[in-house]
Give the backbone structure.
Amino acid sequence: MDQLSEERIRALRNEQSFFIPIIKILQENGGELEGVSQIDKLIPSYTDFTENEINFTKITEKGNKYTPYWFGRNFALKNLSLAGILTYGRNMPIKLTTDGLNIDANAINFEQDIYAKSRPYWEKKAEERKNRKADESTIEDLGEQDVSDLEKEVGQGWRNDILEAILNLNPYRFEQFSRGLLKRMGFDIDLVKGINKSGDGGIDGFAYCLDEQSLKTTRVAIQCKKYRDNPVGSADINNLRGAVDTHRADYGIFITTSYYSKDAIESSRAGGTPVTLIDGNKLIDLMIKYNFKVKEVVSYIADTDYFEA
């Protein structure tokens, strides 16, 4: 059952919701960001979209699954690219052009500054679909193939593949995977507590972290939840905090493949014992940063400055 109103889903799917925020985010961060994950982290500060809405997944009447937020964000990036305001590509940063750096985001005219330049591309794509007599299965007015192509363009496709591989792990393997990632990050994993299933209070691991400057060691309780679609709620966070207090740990780390509800985020910051939240996107970011269970694949694209000149 959909957890968002149709009005909010339409707002997420509407690329116009993202034109100004994306431009402002890039302008206020030096004109360049490493990838869409950095935009995703900043979007809530520039819009009224919550983290819940950003991670919300919808099932269409035909049984197809998609994320409305990705839909709106990706089409916004494509239109801004076609309008000459920014550039992006697989394994490439998102970067404002000279025009993008100088444009007044608050005074932008969507029709004149964006759609007048991007419309020919979309009209050509629509004609190609018509000529191929392709399956008319669409997400409203735009083809599903366009959505899939854009996910690949902005580098989202491979992130989906990594997340799907994690989701295919059984719960015990996911706990092992999570502890292994923390170990790669420099934590010393307790090989007994939390790993043995009896008397651990539901905790999935304990770790120790040494501050080399102060030589102070902190004790961390780890909790893992492998969810495909459901968010982690405040009850889960409170349960972890209770276990942290019971075992006299300094703080907790909660790792999930999905995302956290607003109440869960607020709960993680309340009280005297903090809980660090790692969601599916952050999990992939950490895997890449620490080169854990991923392999870098180098690919090449044509130099569009030359071939399209």
